[in-house]
From TrEMBL:
Keywords: Iron, Metal-binding, Oxidoreductase. This is Fe2OG dioxygenase domain-containing protein. One of its GO terms (molecular function) is metal ion binding. Gene3D superfamilies: B-lactam Antibiotic, Isopenicillin N Synthase, Chain. It comes from Vitis vinifera. It comes from the Eukaryota. It holds the Pfam family DIOX_N. Its cofactor is Fe cation. PANTHER family: 1-AMINOCYCLOPROPANE-1-CARBOXYLATE OXIDASE HOMOLOG 1-LIKE, OXIDOREDUCTASE, 2OG-FE II OXYGENASE FAMILY PROTEIN. Belongs to the iron/ascorbate-dependent oxidoreductase family.
Length: 368
């Protein structure tokens, strides 16, 4: 057998293993439930990709925490919050918020609801398993399973919540009520944050909202099972978010890391806090003023880790239908601050985003 034939045979084996995993419709949790002590090779990441995995342990950096108490009623507190948010988005692209208005009991119930979904009877859960991204409710493991060079140790419940709420009966019964209630609160919080960001940029408070940045909300309930060989894989690969803004709820297990000043920095869980990060489209709109930065989730021997990521985005499940163009906001441009990016449609941007692989910015190909 020559080298070409060997490589084709190896690729065919890889494709078969990937398909066999997907065909179980049980995700990564199915592997753990089956008692695996060695992770399948489709989950093993190259060592150069993992070697700096824990360099952040002695980092002097920590992402900003911002108190939103009084931002809607007190002008002084609002001005302080705007300044801190603007600074965090320019320097970090990430920050945590406290006193955001969503009760801690709802945060805890949302995490519990996601856990209930992933840990319910396998036959019930399998009914939601699909790779048809046009569906408003779906369960799957690794959105890019058949495109990415390696898989990650994570399963996901995905719901499209806005602009049109899904029919309640289409949602999983084990988390239906809390998913509807939580998404409504997150969308309201998102509108407030876009107002604060607009003012921080020197724009009308409704500017980003009027651009429909808060129009579409996708909900991803992630489940990261305990991993028998966490040093060989990742929970989520290195990436930036292809949206305007993400609001993340994470449990107390931790594992999220942000790339800042050439090192990985842990984002430690704060009870009752939410994490906010800038997405690629907001960096594009603000002409590099606000930063969309790389982040990842490490795999752990302890688990499961539960998180809920709410994405304010263009159109996630049907990118081909969104032909609106996005480019730097005109009001932010001047002779001293010319456009850094050419305009793009959401469709073209998302096609590039999902084809390029993780680890490099999808905005680079739009640079003028």
């Amino acid at each position: 057998m020559n080298q070409v034939e060997a490589e084709i045979g190896s690729q065919n084996d890889w494709n078969s293993e990937t398909k066999a995993f997907d065909d179980t419709k049980l995700g990564v949790k199915g592997l753990v439930d089956a008692g695996v002590t060695k992770i399948p090779r489709i989950f093993i990441h190259p060592q150069h990709y993992l070697q700096d995995k824990l360099v952040c342990e002695d980092s002097q950096f920590s992402i900003p925490t911002i108190d939103l108490q009084g931002v809607t009623s007190d002008a002084i507190l609002r001005a302080k919050a705007i300044e801190k948010i603007q600074n965090a988005c320019e320097k970090w692209g990430f920050f945590q918020i406290v006193n955001h208005g969503i009760p801690k009991s709802d945060l805890e119930e949302m995490l519990a609801g996601v856990r209930r979904f992933h840990e319910q009877d396998a036959e019930v859960k399998k009914e939601f398993y699909t790779r048809d991204l046009r569906k408003k409710v779906l369960f799957l493991s690794n959105f890019d399973l058949f495109q990415a060079p390696t898989a990650t140790w994570r399963d996901t419940l995905a719901l499209v919540m806005y602009p049109i709420l899904p029919e309640p009966e289409s949602l999983p019964t084990v988390c239906r009520d809390i998913a509807l209630a939580y998404s409504k609160q997150v969308q309201r919080l998102g509108i407030t944050l876009f107002e604060l960001l607009s003012v921080g940029l020197g724009l009308n408070p409704n500017h980003l909202k009027d651009m429909e940045c808060a129009e579409r909300l996708s909900f991803l309930g992630h489940y990261y099972p305990a991993c028998p060989e966490p040093e060989l894989t990742l929970g989520t690969s290195i990436h930036s978010d292809a949206d305007f803004m993400t609001i993340l709820l994470q449990d107390q297990l931790g594992g999220l890391q942000v790339f800042h000043e050439n090192q990985w920095v842990d984002v430690p869980p704060i009870p009752g806090a939410l994490i906010v990060n800038v997405g690629d489209f907001l960096q594009l709109l603000t002409n590099d003023k606000l930063k969309s930065v790389h982040h990842r989730v490490i795999a752990k021997q302890k688990g499961p880790r539960i998180s809920v990521a709410c994405f304010f985005r263009t159109e996630f499940f049907e990118p081909g239908d969104n032909l609106r163009s996005y480019g730097p906001i005109q009001e932010l441009l001047s002779e001293e601050n010319p456009p850094v990016y050419k305009e793009t449609t959401a469709n073209d941007y998302l096609k590039h985003y999902y084809s390029k692989g993780s680890g490099t910015s999808s905005l680079l190909h739009l640079k003028l």
